[in-house]
UniProtKB/TrEMBL annotation:
SUPFAM superfamilies: Immunoglobulin. This is Ig-like domain-containing protein. The lineage of its organism: Eukaryota, Metazoa, Chordata, Craniata, Vertebrata. Residues 101-189 form the Ig-like domain. It comes from Sinocyclocheilus grahami (Dianchi golden-line fish). Keywords: Membrane, Transmembrane, Transmembrane helix. PANTHER family: CD48 ANTIGEN-RELATED, LFA-3.
Amino acid sequence: MGGDSVTLNSGFTEMMDDDLIRWRFGSENTLIAQINVMVSSMTVYDDVLDERFRDRLKLDHQTGSLIITNTRTEHTGLYQLQINSVSKSFSLTVYAHLPFPDIIRDCSSSSSSSSSSSQQNCSLVCSVVNVGHVTLSWYKGNSLLSSISVSDLSISLSLPLEVEYQDNNTYSCVLNNPISNQTTHLDITQHCQPCSDSVHCCGFSETVIRLVLSALVGVAAAAVLVYDIRSTRE
């Protein structure tokens, strides 16, 4: 959490005297670190690729493993290790820490609906901002009602829901990615307060302001990561 470190293990307990170790990243196999045991040289190239690895790369002096500190989503990708005749690949995915989804009443929708319907039903919107590779869902108890997914970074992701004021069921809005989730539960008494005329007018502006504030919190959030390793011999 919060700028975690990950170690890409070379698989060796110690380096040999004639080892030449190279670490590469991305589709273009950009060289980011190298160890030449014969000349006792260890070098990290953290100024490449727009300096995304600046002050984040370390090499294990004994095994040649690569350590990436304070990881970010931009460190997601394929890493290649070459040690003499041995080649390994590491697929690393870094997921941003998820914010809690925000549930608000959609007063603009309530004001445009028929009077009889608006007196019986409450229109809601669950929203998040600055998220990627996530799914936003509404649940009624354990049953999925609706969901929306995004693979790239999104400015805003929102999902509507309409419930009756007298509904006693449990509703929740869930934001999840492959490794974590955050849930906000619906409280009809709290979230379905009557819309005043001023709220009808300015409800959308309030929504935008709240989303922007949530985004500022999300930008400062930690990153969590997972990686899969597969090895091949040249």
